[in-house]
Design goal:
- The complex is a heterodimer of chains A (115) and B (115).
- Chain A is built from no helices and twelve strands.
- Chain A has 115 residues and is mainly β.
- The termini of chain A are far apart.
- Chain B has no helices and eleven strands.
- The N and C termini of chain B lie far apart (36 Å).
- Helices cover 0% and strands 49% of the residues of chain B.
- In chain B, the strands form two sheets. In chain B, strands 2, 4, 5, 6, 9, 10 and 11 form a seven-stranded mixed beta sheet that branches.
- In chain B, a hairpin with a 2-residue loop joins strand 5 and strand 6.
- Chain B has 115 residues and is mainly beta.
- Classes of the chains: A mainly beta (115), B mainly beta (115).
- Chains A and B meet through strand 5, strand 6 and strand 11 of A and strand 4, strand 5, strand 9 and strand 10 of B.
């Protein structure tokens, strides 16, 4: 069974500082990994994905994520946080052999960037 | 690109009533997914369609829930005899069948409040 863990309910960071939002996953096969962001009363917006190749993937709004197979992690990072980055972030996994292509989501991490 | 649209955005109902949500996916997308998201949790997979065929249902989808996609375009999710525990955001997403590595595109959701 596929699963995702986001160990931090909330991450607090000062504007201009680097940020990291943690994610670990579990799949029976090889993973496809995704990050989404959700603003209040809105749907999920895609940020980035890892499919294969380079372990560091770059996405929207200056975000990037690093895939680490040995640690089964896919942490979201940004070199310099903005107040407007404050939102709810979800990590998701898809097993390559799952023909439904559905995503399994973590419980989310609230990012709060203070001015 | 009109995106995924959901209707209604908000629904307040009394316990025991039936409610129906509609989802219009992106026009060229033949896969459609329903998720449920409760406060403080990540989206949970409910069911998915490829064209008009419902190919997978989560055990979260009790007998009171039914989803249809009669012509392979829009979909409806009906909840019969609503209970307070059904209060949640119901999210619809779509994707293309030939994009196994592709992300899901989400609508803004339909928020259900059962009094």
């Amino acid at each position: 069974a596929q699963s995702v863990a986001q160990p931090e309910d909330q991450v607090n960071v000062a504007e201009g500082n680097p940020l990291t939002v943690k994610c670990t996953y579990s799949v029976s096969g090889n993973p496809y990994l995704f990050w989404y962001v959700q603003y209040p009363n809105r749907g999920l917006q895609f940020l980035l994905k890892y499919i294969t190749g380079d372990n560091l993937v770059k996405g929207s709004y200056g975000f990037e994520a690093e895939f680490n197979k040995s640690q089964t992690s896919f942490h979201l990072k940004k070199p310099s946080a903005l107040v407007s980055d404050s939102a709810l972030y979800f990590c998701a996994v898809r097993d390559k052999v799952d023909s439904s292509y559905k995503l399994i989501f973590g419980s989310g991490t609230r990012l709060l960037v203070r001015p | 690109d009109t995106g995924v649209s959901q209707d209604p955005r908000h629904k307040i109902t009394k316990r025991g009533q039936n409610v129906t949500f509609r989802c219009d996916p992106i026009s060229e997308h033949n896969r459609l997914y329903w998720y449920r998201q409760t406060l403080g949790q990540g989206p949970e997979f409910l069911t998915y369609f490829q064209n008009e065929a419902q190919l997978e249902k989560s055990r979260l989808l009790s007998d009171r829930f039914s989803a249809e996609r009669p012509k392979g375009s829009f979909s409806t999710l009906e909840i019969q005899r609503t209970e307070q525990g059904d209060s949640a955001m119901y999210l619809c997403a779509s994707s293309r069948r030939d994009q196994s590595t592709g992300e899901l595109f989400f609508g803004e959701g339909s928020r259900l409040t059962v009094l």
